[in-house]
């Protein structure tokens, strides 16, 4: 997780965070959720609570990685004032195609999942950007269509994953020593950057410390889960795209004021198409992680995942009106959603109640955000 | 604040009418982030009176009207509004309407796809059991049109009317609410002379009927013809309120501007070079030349520039004598054209993004790079901030927090960073204060001296006359006149702009 509220001179050219206060409130909300679940999962077996215990926390993060990967892609689409409701169905379709192409080897299977994602994203992006059909409608159609396609292709049957490497993508752990080595490399890089920007001592020390703490914690149960590593890589790519590329910059410009962006010489169609393709590729990645973790592809896999991804973005401060949102915020949102899911399951909260609470949290988070903005 | 007269009624007025004024606004102050738009403004209006409100753009006229019409509800400003002597606090626009206040804004608020009748009664259609009584609506609309002696059918679609007729419909809509206080904001800006005469006749009848009229206009000739009293606003303050008989136009102008008018437009002498840009059959502009495009609102000036810039269908133009096909704005920018659009909030700015991002956007798009360079962008933005004197605490604050004049400078800075050869300026000084205006005029002269070919569209005729080397006049999308600076008189240009004369 990268620095959330960068106040450095350089990156403020395209300042993404609304207000520092807002980002902190979401951290406090997360902390409150964690403390609550930790307290409620205290038992004879786990005298300090089960929730943050390495075994459970690794599980939570594996669940979160799928939503997190989708949320990073969804962020770019929402920032450009678009939406994609089809990613859940597309996770099902891409996962199913990957399962069906296992016979051609791991590389072909994974590549086909990502190719399906990009192709579907390109089609929907073209319909939204060039044919001017609202993205909401195009991807609502996609939600139904892709689900129909996978039901047709799989004849409604669940396909088991036989390739051991494929399964391991969803479940295996990074070797403890390798995990520490990665943490060391990342720390060195972050420290170098902080020094160059003359960051405050807290900012210099805190990120590396948290990284080592995290890896050590995960090593207690055998290592950092591989999907989490994938999410970190995806998040880094997302952060670079949003902050350091013209592609990302134009998406914010288009979301802020499409007319002004167009008159400034930005090709709106091409960039919206690009955002949908980017999300499509990440949907393929998410499908691989999800299918590998479950160990099979069922025709209803991925249902409602689009809503989790959108909710993660929105809780993390992304505006559905476009032009506003950060990768770190979307990840924070995904973590909050995953924590609620996991914690309520631990407490054996009924399914019905889980839905109600998640819905209420989503609406409350946005309501809180809007109230905060009015005060600004 | 009041060198002559008093902000409230003069003795003569009080003698004429012993009743309390129809409308009284006292101590109205309104601030926006970074600007004080109104500072303890006092304004009153008697029944049967036309009270003109004049001042430069940005002087606070529109803000004052918005306070009165509850576009800014009670509580968002300081001061008091009294109607018939009673203090009124309007929470929403409808409250002001119920109190008999009707505003005809400069921008039309008609729905083109609806008929005149539907527009007049939009939102308050005669209903029975929740169903619209179409016959009653038509009858009532016909009655309103008859009262105004407008020969229009309530069945006609608004989109099929000319722009001047649409304005008259807008006025009919306001009057159909039984308004006792009618506010007209630049009502004749889009009217032909004959349409304006119809309007003046209507106002005369309304005045005789005892309505109070607030009349906002830049055209002092009109103001002196129909107003009883004139209030001058400048920088959010009332400069003076006087009976018309105590004033003459040059004194009003001096009060509006706060100094002699002559130094508003910096003098410039230059010798234009080769033709840099040509749109065949319309106009051409030379290096180092300012070409003014005059015309009434709705004459198609902005549409023309939009088309030449590739923002609508696309166009074929000649740049430095060579044919250039322009299909989209990026083509135009690549050919060295820059376009400071009108309505900066709608077309120019990313309001919720930092100033720096706004300033560097067009340059980035032109560069076709993939990675951004934050240090370079910051340096570019801060240099623009210094050179154009953009008043902002830093280049990292959101563009919406800046005042109008500074926002306009941000848009200008964005385009200057693309290093253009040809600069289109569409209403570059609309809604900004006099100081910022003067800086923009100086900048235009500086850029022309540097060899840029500049096309200037402005609705303010004095601005066009003073800044341009040559002037082209548009009427209904066609060129109806062309003048050199020496030939151009306001009368000659207006004659072409209203379509009365063709002097091409």
Q: How widely separated are the two ends of chain A?
A: 27 Å
Task: Tell me the distance between the termini of chain B.
Answer: 47 Å
What's the total count of β strands of chain B? 22
The number of distinct β-strands of chain A equals 2
Query: In terms of quaternary structure, what is this?
Result: heterodimer
CATH superfamily of the largest domain in chain B: P-loop containing nucleotide triphosphate hydrolases
How would you summarize the topology of this molecule?
The complex is a heterodimer of chains A (376) and B (504).
Chain A lengths: L19 H21 L13 H26 L7 H14 L5 H24 L5 H20 L4 E2 L3 H8 L4 H21 L4 H19 L6 H19 L1 H11 L1 H6 L4 H27 L1 E2 L7 H11 L11 H20 L4 H25 L1
Helix pairs in contact in A: 1-14, 2-9, 2-10, 2-12, 2-13, 2-14, 3-4, 3-5, 3-12, 4-5, 4-12, 6-12, 7-8, 9-10, 10-12, 13-14
Chain B lengths: L10 H6 L6 E10 L2 E11 L4 E5 L6 H8 L9 E6 L2 E3 L4 H6 L2 E4 L11 H5 L6 E2 L2 E2 L1 H14 L15 H13 L5 E5 L7 H16 L3 E5 L3 H7 L2 E6 L2 E7 L5 H9 L17 E5 L3 E4 L3 E5 L6 H8 L6 E5 L2 E5 L2 H6 L2 E4 L3 H5 L6 H13 L6 H14 L16 H13 L5 E5 L7 H16 L3 E5 L3 H7 L2 E6 L2 E7 L5 H8 L7
Parallel strand pairs in B: 3-10, 3-11, 6-9, 9-10, 15-20, 15-21, 18-19, 19-20
Antiparallel strand pairs in B: 1-2, 1-4, 4-5, 7-8, 11-12, 13-14, 13-16, 16-17, 21-22
